[in-house]
TrEMBL record:
Family: Belongs to the sigma-70 factor family. ECF subfamily.
Listed name of the protein: RNA polymerase sigma factor
Pfam families from the UniProt entry: Sigma70_r2, Sigma70_r4_2
Gene3D superfamilies for this protein: 1.10.1740.10, Winged helix-like DNA-binding domain superfamily/Winged helix DNA-binding domain
SUPFAM superfamilies: Sigma2 domain of RNA polymerase sigma factors, Sigma3 and sigma4 domains of RNA polymerase sigma factors
Keyword match Ribonucleoprotein: no
UniProt entry tagged with the keyword Cell membrane: no
The organism's taxonomic lineage, starting at the top: Bacteria, Bacillati, Bacillota, Bacilli, Bacillales
Residue ranges annotated for the RNA polymerase sigma-70 region domain, each copy included: 25-91
Length: 191
């Protein structure tokens, strides 16, 4: 069945045949895995978030007119749940290197071909982001490290560098935009 996600809104999920339930979950998993993994950088946490969001979706599915509306609603649930996870685990996240993906070595994935492909793509993306960071002007790279590695506020960075908070915000914005532009150029905006 091509659009199995629509079964979430058209029927009681628990009443579906187990093979249909697996098909719906597999389509859901495939749709959200890459995004969550990219954000949290931890396979176990990604699996937990996928399960948690799937249960939320099944319990609170809205009435929708088409698959596009359903996917948009699911993405909002996934995004909000992932942000909540990141807020709860902020200290752990801040201890990660800026090239956060290098810690994924040694993680065992299921033999599922798609999961392996996703992991390879994430590793390639992480290497690209690491390169983009290294290619920044040294002053911008230092700002990024102070903000994200050291978790300094704009005010603390400004005091340490002897400039205004507005200058720090502006330069950080420019650095993020430069990285984003290169990322989208190489990886495409539709991913």
């Amino acid at each position: 069945m091509k659009n199995t996600l629509l079964l979430l809104s058209s029927a009681n999920f628990g009443a579906l045949d187990s093979s249909l339930q697996r098909a719906v979950y597999h389509e859901y998993y495939t749709m959200v895995y890459r995004v969550i993994m990219y954000m949290v950088q931890d396979h176990g946490a990604t699996e937990d978030i996928i399960q948690e969001t799937f249960l939320k979706v099944v319990k609170h599915i809205p009435v929708v007119e088409n698959e596009g509306q359903l996917k948009a609603w699911i993405k909002a649930v996934v995004r909000n749940t992932t942000y909540s996870y990141l807020k709860k685990n902020k200290k752990k996240r801040n201890e990660m290197d800026l090239d956060i993906f290098s810690k994924n070595e040694g993680i065992e994935f299921s033999s599922d071909k798609e999961a392996i492909e996703v992991e390879i793509e994430l590793k390639a993306m992480s290497e690209g982001i690491g390169t983009y960071l290294n290619d920044l002007k040294p002053e911008n790279r230092i700002l990024m490290e102070m903000r994200w590695k050291q978790d300094l506020s704009y005010k603390e960075i400004a005091a340490e560098l002897g400039c205004t908070e507005q200058t720090v915000k502006y330069k950080l914005h420019r650095a993020r935009e430069a990285i984003k532009k290169r990322f989208l150029k190489e990886w495409g905006g539709g991913r």
